[in-house]
Amino acid sequence: MVSSNKVFASLDKITKSFGQVNALRGATLEIEKNKATAIVGDNGSGKSTLIKILSGIIKPDSGDICIEDKFYKFLTPKLAYKNGISTVYQDLSLDNYRDVSGNIFLGKEITKLGFILDYEKMYEETEILLEKFHIDIPYLKTPVGYLSGGQRQSIAIGRAIYQGRKLIIFDEPTAAMGVKESIATNNLISSLPGKGFTVLIVSHDIYQVFDIADRIFIMEQGKIVDDVAKDGSTPQELRKRISHGF
Question: What's the pTM value of the predicted model, to 2 decimals?
Answer without folding.
Answer: 0.86
